[in-house]
Design brief:
Length: 533
């Protein structure tokens, strides 16, 4: 699209906005009527470990959103010479799960508990048994039940329970709603009715009946909406939260708020059955859209969530991915700077990560664990990053970098083995996105080796979930009868550029050897948790 045409769309309010609050970055993307990103802004932020709880303050939420939007405004002004005053539609996405509980005065009752916390193991296990359905530790219902079992006084005062995306959307519009994909990470969904599972709601009510709470669960959960349905209007107060400068006008229609898993599926065109995507950044998870339900429950290994339009999805999730090798990168960069040199961050990452391609297929016997936080699937309750080697191992930079990339995918592979080997799930394509794939070829080759499956990356996948939620806003604004999958195939990805890398037999065998050692060494990791307090 020509620059003059884009400028006119901005002036006439024909562009769509997407905001995503990720684990380490808040990103804002503006797209035109052809669904192409035309400007973006961002703000880096980090979670805090407060009294043993991973959290972000609500002040940091709004500061980060307004700074990210301000960066976007500056980009629009400098590139197109006009201010961003009007929008056709917008949407909010954020990291899924977690616990944001408010009282009837809209006061936050306890600090935001993010998906990263693994304090809810007992609650998640009891709920999984109660429902005969996998309920992960990250889910909002696990956090609520944990608070109940722990006798936390605030529980009786809960009036509204939501996710981060649901909270931001509520403050922008006044609507207590949630997209079905994000809602499926709060409480199990009935994919036939597209509502919270009624039988499980009833089971939970009986389970907590003796506590005599003044609320019931359906009354405090957000209402569920499907992709394409309207979810409210940006009010004046919300417009000022987003843009304190006062330039952006209120009145913008919003699509249902979604979680990062759902927007990742949209951004990689992976919402149709037999498609899948793998998101690899701070955490790592693969989403496979199922043709039929799984034969049984795989508690702690496979989660069941939905696409933004309500199809059943199997999810293999690891809490940790790139965080630990990012820490090593900072250390290596400190060495370089100490020697009096300076290398741009992108070039620095590329040069070191490309060394992984030179390493032995099995990483020469090196064994790191990237557990900044605990990992449910491997039974590790707390984070203890660890690096172990035998004196006979080949301790080279190439093997070290390859091992850091391989360990980032260890938990993911354990879950995927269940889907491929036990459930014989059929899949036509897996698309990758996230920071793990930023270095061309390297991330794809490592992921293909780990999943023994071809991995494709769309040229646009780097735009991520902020682009995904902007696409959902555009889909809602069209008000047509086409399905979400049809819309993405025909209006967004019809001419998309795709690169695909297939694993070699040697690479697959190398990862398998690494994974065997990874599983064998887990008692060492557990000992680190037990003895390093």
């Amino acid at each position: 699209m020509l620059k003059n045409t884009i400028t006119q769309e901005i002036v006439n309010g024909q562009t769509m906005l997407g905001i995503e609050l990720g684990s380490t970055r808040i990103k804002t993307v503006l797209i035109n009527s052809e669904n192409q990103p035309i400007a973006q802004g961002g703000h880096d932020w980090e979670n805090t470990l407060l009294d043993g709880i991973w959290t972000y303050s609500l002040e940091d939420v709004w500061r980060g959103i307004s700074l990210s939007f301000s960066n976007l405004q500056e980009a629009v002004q400098s590139t197109y010479g006009v201010p961003l005053k009007k929008l056709k539609a917008m949407g909010v996405s954020a990291m899924m799960h977690g616990y944001l509980a408010f009282d009837n005065q809209d006061k936050l009752l306890v600090p935001f508990r993010t998906w990263r916390n693994t304090i809810t193991a007992k609650a998640a296990e009891e709920l999984s048994d109660l429902f005969a359905y996998p309920v992960p530790e990250r889910w909002s219902i696990s956090h609520l039940y944990h608070a109940i079992l722990s006798g936390e006084d605030h529980v009786k005062d809960i009036s509204f329970l939501t996710t981060l995306a649901g909270y931001v959307h509520w403050r922008l519009t006044g609507e207590k709603v949630l997209g079905i994909g994000d809602a499926s990470g709060m409480f199990p969904i009935d994919t036939e009715t597209k509502k919270y599972n009624a039988k499980m709601l009833e089971s939970f009510a009986k389970q907590v009946e003796s506590y005599h709470f003044p609320w019931n669960l359906p009354s405090i959960l957000p209402s569920i909406l499907l992709a394409g349905e309207p979810a409210g209007i940006l009010n004046e107060q919300g417009a000022r939260l987003l843009d304190p400068s006062g330039v952006l006008e209120a009145g913008v229609p919003l699509c249902p708020p979604e979680g990062d898993a759902g927007t990742g599926m949209v951004a990689t065109n992976s919402v149709a059955k037999r498609t899948g995507n793998v998101s690899a950044g701070t955490s790592v998870f693969a989403m496979i859209v199922l043709e039929k339900p799984l034969s049984k429950s795989y508690n702690k290994f496979i989660d069941l969530v939905t696409t933004p339009d309500g199809s059943l999805v199997a999810m293999s999730h690891g809490n940790n991915c790139t965080g630990e090798y990012d820490a090593w990168m900072r250390l290596f960069n400190e060495v370089v700077q100490t020697l009096g040199f300076s290398v741009p961050k992108g070039e620095f990452y590329d040069k070191l990560l490309f060394k992984a391609l030179e390493g032995d297929k099995d990483c020469g016997g090196l064994l790191p664990y990237n557990y900044i936080s605990g990992e449910t699937m491997t039974g590790i309750s707390e984070g203890r990053p660890l690096f172990v080697r035998e004196t006979k191992n080949s301790f080279t930079l190439a093997n070290f970098m390859r091992s850091q990339l391989f360990t980032a995918l260890g938990v993911l592979r354990i879950g995927m083995d269940i889907l491929f080997e036990e459930e014989h799930v059929a899949i036509d394509t897996i698309n990758g996105h996230g920071g793990f794939f930023k270095t061309a070829e390297v991330g794809q080759k490592m992921m293909a080796s780990a999943l023994h499956t071809p991995i494709s990356v769309l040229k646009t996948a780097g735009e991520g979930g902020a682009w995904g939620i902007a696409l959902l806003a555009a889909y809602m604004a069209r008000k047509s009868d086409e399905t979400l999958s049809e819309y993405l195939n025909e209006k967004v990805f019809a001419s998309a550029e795709v690169t695909t890398i297939e694993p070699t037999e040697e690479d697959i065998a190398g990862f398998n050897a690494f994974l065997a050692r990874y599983k064998q060494g887990l008692p060492v990791e557990k000992a680190a948790v037990a003895h390093l307090k």
